[in-house]
Write a structure and sequence with these properties.
Layout: H1 8-42, H2 48-69, E1 81-84, E2 87-98, E3 102-109, E4 117-121, H3 133-139, E5 144-150, H4 165-179, E6 184-188, H5 192-204, E7 213-217, H6 229-236, H7 239-246, E8 248-249, E9 260-262, H8 264-274, H9 276-292, H10 295-308, E10 314-315, H11 316-328, H12 331-334, E11 338-339, E12 342-343, E13 353-359, H13 372-376, E14 385-390, H14 402-422
Parallel strand pairs: 4-5, 4-6, 6-7, 7-13, 13-14
Antiparallel strand pairs: 1-2, 2-3, 3-5, 8-9, 9-10, 11-12
Helix pairs in contact: 1-2, 2-9, 3-14, 4-5, 9-10
């Protein structure tokens, strides 16, 4: 890579060092004031109303300053058990295949239940796969769950080579093959493109490992279908601008020293800049909850930001190729995307049933971008194509939160089992109730109007 921003990483680390120093000093000062107040209380020198108020303010300020100073490292999935048939079942993480830039992670349940094998393809977009913790947790009772666990490019040595969109597609294809025949695949956001490409390759090869079903959720399959701030940025700049301004080089004190990356902190700042007032208010709310002793409410906000602020770097080549091929050129939608010099042909998909999921208010992958998959998969029968749009849901609402748990996950569970039944695959009955649906064909490939979401095309 010839061009990059040589100051991007050093400037960020210098700024981060300064902020950490400041907030660590502030935290120490607040801790000292808390100790002095406790001493005053001990000797009766602080009136109780004043002491209680001051204690609450100091304690909340102390915790907030510690949070601003801390480094947010890769979180744990922390999914130690799930409920199967009303009983607690132990869950153990096991790495099925470990590659340079990502692993195939299996959530092994201590049960003899016969459930569908489901690969969840997580985004490589600046956050770890743990961003899909709620997604995994909700699927565990009724599925044998696997996930792509991408690594921080900052920690991948240069000796491991580069990683581009071809490599991403190859990883997804390889992981599907590793799981074996009869599996199902579900991709969230960015990897919908790579997943459809991988399934298309398996179809052309007439592989026995073609998935039985494919669920694509909120992804940029055809960014021409609906504009967002993300698509507008991609269309407004030449690819050289992204290379010169957003690609940095990993500093010498990391394992991936010298690697060109799209830093996770750049992606984080970009997302936060889309809704700065929302993030500011969330931290104000956290402070107020801490001060008033509403720890349950404060803990919910803290849990979100523990995940949201834990970011990782993307390989520079992969980032630039994604911007160029997915957002600027829309190559998959136009039929020009290649893998290892061979055109990707989604029309070859005939074995794998398709379900698309969109959020009515998704401002990252807007409605229409994902349903475009139905037009691309021209080889599927209408009886193999389904769509659901979640009313009022933003991007994160389609894979986390109450809408995901109550409306979307049950539909996916029902879809997976129905499509498997068509292939004479039988599983144990779901351990959690699933939403009864009529599996009617998608009548057309036109995105529905907001407020009138179809249920599997009906």
């Amino acid at each position: 890579m010839k061009k990059h921003n040589p100051l991007l990483y050093p400037a960020h680390e210098a700024q981060r060092f300064g902020l950490k120093t400041y907030f660590n000093a502030l935290s120490a000062g607040l801790a000292f004031q808390e100790a002095m107040l406790a001493m005053q209380e001990m000797y009766g020198l602080a009136p109780k109303p004043y002491a209680d108020l001051a204690k609450d303010i100091l304690s909340a300020s102390h915790e907030m300053s510690e949070r601003f100073a801390k480094d947010y490292t890769k979180p744990e999935f922390n999914l130690k058990e799930t409920q199967v048939d009303g009983k607690a079942v132990t869950v153990t993480e096991e790495i099925i295949e470990d590659r340079a830039f990502g692993s195939l992670l299996h959530f092994k349940r201590d049960t003899n239940r016969n459930d569908p094998k489901l690969l969840i393809v997580a985004p490589m977009s600046g956050h770890y796969a743990t961003l899909l913790r709620d997604t995994v947790a909700e699927m565990l009772p009724n599925h044998d769950v696997y996930i792509t666990d991408w690594k921080d490019a900052r920690d991948v040595p240069l000796s491991k080579g580069e990683f581009g969109l071809d490599d991403y597609i190859g990883y997804v294809k390889g992981f599907i093959e590793k799981i074996g025949p009869g599996a199902h695949v579900m991709a969230v956001c960015q990897p919908t493109v790579a997943t459809l490409a991988a399934v298309s390759l398996l179809a052309e090869e007439k592989s026995p490992c073609q998935p039985v079903s494919m669920t694509l959720m909120g992804g940029p399959l055809d960014t021409r279908a609906a504009k967002t701030e993300v698509t507008k940025l991609a269309e407004s700049k030449p690819i050289e601008w992204f290379e010169e301004n957003l690609i940095g080089q990993v500093p010498v004190h990391y394992k991936g020293a010298g690697r060109f990356v799209y830093p996770g902190f750049v992606q984080l700042f970009s997302f936060m800049a889309m809704h700065p007032e929302k993030h500011m208010q969330s931290h104000v709310d956290m402070f107020n909850h801490l001060m008033k002793g509403n720890h349950d409410k404060a803990d919910k906000i803290k849990a979100f930001y523990d995940e949201y602020l834990a970011v990782c770097d993307l390989p520079g080549k992969f980032y630039l190729e994604t911007v160029q091929k997915v957002f600027i050129d829309q190559q998959l939608a136009k039929g020009t995307l290649e893998y290892d010099g061979k055109l990707i042909n989604p029309a070859a998909v005939k074995h794998t049933a398709l379900l698309t999921i969109e959020g009515e208010k998704d401002d990252i992958s807007a409605p229409g971008q994902t349903t475009a998959a139905h037009k691309m998969c021209a080889g599927l029968k209408l009886s193999q194509k389904f769509h659901y749009q979640q009313p009022g849901a933003g991007h994160y609402g389609i894979f986390a939160g109450s809408g995901w748990r109550d409306d979307i996950a049950p539909r996916i569970t029902a879809f997976i089992r129905e499509m498997a039944a068509r292939h004479n695959l039988s599983y144990d009955l779901p351990s959690k109730s699933v939403m009864p649906e009529t599996f009617a064909p998608l009548q057309d490939n036109t995105p529905r109007k907001a407020g009138k979401p179809p249920r599997f095309g009906t």
